[in-house]
Write a structure and sequence with these properties.
By secondary structure, the chain is mostly beta strands. Helices cover 0% and strands 58% of the residues. The protein is globular. The protein starts with a strand and ends with a strand.
Amino acid sequence: QVQLVESGGGLVQPGGSLRLSCAASGRTFSINAWNWYRQAPGKQRDLVATITSGGSTNYADSVKGRFTISRDRAKNTVYLQMNSLKPEDTAVYYCSADRDVYTRYWGQGTQVTVSS
């Protein structure tokens, strides 16, 4: 089992920045990829960014050049640095960890609101 706890959400003005953290515990050595998803009210949950155990990253087109996913192995923490935030980035952000194609662990989510 892997437990995930997100933090760092909040209210920020358009153009501002936030850094989300996802603290992991448990059998983290079994994880092949770490992801950030987001879900706006009334919409589906969408993949935002991924970092693999080898360090490769991938981003949704809507956040490329603005968001950066990273991982601190020593702290067992995954980060999402979000810059140049827009109102359309408002959503609940979820951290997830993939052990294999059948097993994905989720955190509880953290709210990000971009508004003036």
